[in-house]
Amino acid sequence: MTAGANDFTGPTVELLQSLIRNECVNDGTPDSGFEGRNADLLQTYLEGSGLAVERFDSRPGRTSMVARIEGSDPAAPALCLMGHTDVVPANPDGWSRDPFAGELVDGEVWGRGAIDMLNITSSMAVAFRQLADEGFRPKGTLIYFGVADEEAGGQWGAEFMLDEHWDAVGADYVLTESGGWSQGSHDGTRAITINVAEKGIAWRRLRVSGTPGHGSMPYGSDNALITAAEIVRRLATYRTRPYLDDLWQARLATLDIPADVRTALSDPATIDDGIASLPPEYARVAHACSHTTISPNVIHGGQKTNTIPDVIDIDVDMRTVPGDTKEVVDDYLADALGELADRVTISSLQEGDATRSPIDNPLWEALATNAQVAYPGAELVPGIIVGGTDARFYRLKGSIAYGAGLFSPSVTMESFGNRFHGNDERIDVESLGLSAQFWYGIAKQLVG
Question: pLDDT at residue 421 above 90?
Answer without folding.
Answer: no
